[in-house]
Amino acid sequence: MTTIGIIIGSTRPGRQGEGVARWVRELATAHAGNAAHFELVDLLDHRLPLLDEPVPAARAAGTHPHTRRWAERIGACDAFVFVTPEYNTSAPAALTNAIDYLLPEWAGKPVGYVGYGVYGAVMAIHTLRAQAGALRMADIGPQVALTLAEDFVNFAEFRPRELQTARLRELLDELLAWEQALGTLRVATQRTAS
């Protein structure tokens, strides 16, 4: 069965990402039925230090136990939804650091984005899209941009507007279609690497 990793991109205390990610998983599970299994991947559970591998991921697999655990977790997923806030027009350092640890585990897999912030994290997502291309990920078009003023009560309690549900369904449909289309590419790439 297809496994979609929903990555919670913030590790900050008081983050909204956990509630947003649970909403994504609940809606995705109901919408996709048996087509996929959706798992939360919380960066807090991995506690990755600032990138500490002596050799870049493009040249060799990581040597530290935390890198190997992270690689195994990401390698087990067939596609991703990044749930990200925006800090000073960029994605959280914890998320970009986690991405930088790996390379082959990301390649050939589609990724979609659910952003939240004052302006829906559109600038953070823009930088993540550029990074995805360099990692040979399939960056899909639809995204969900949740704004603090319209999708949260008093900037704190997450209550997405109905139009966001429709946008998330569109994102999920495209993500699953890309995952199926890229399945043969991933198999061929794995054979070549073996």
| Percent strand | 15-25%
Helix tally?
A: 6
How do the strands of the widest beta sheet line up side by side? 2-1-3-4-5
Q: List the uncertain runs.
A: none
Query: Terminal Cα separation, in Å?
Result: 23 Å
Radius of gyration: 16 Å
* Derived structural class: alpha/beta
The run of helices and strands is EHEHEHEHEHEEH
| Largest sheet, strands/sense/barrel | 5 strands, parallel
Principal-axis shape: globular
Proportion in helices: 40-55%
Number of strands: 7
Q: Mean of the pLDDT scores?
A: 94
Question: Can you describe this structure?
Answer:
The structure is a single chain. The model has no long low-confidence stretch (mean pLDDT 94). Strand 4, helix 4 (122-134) and strand 5 (138-147) form a beta-alpha-beta unit. The protein has helices at residues 17-32, 65-75, 93-100, 122-134, 148-151, 162-193; strands at residues 2-8, 36-42, 79-85, 110-117, 138-147, 152-153, 157-158. The radius of gyration is 16 Å and the shape is globular. The chain has a five-stranded parallel β-sheet with strand order 2-1-3-4-5, sandwiched between helices. A two-stranded antiparallel ribbon has the order 6-7. By secondary structure, it is an alpha/beta fold.
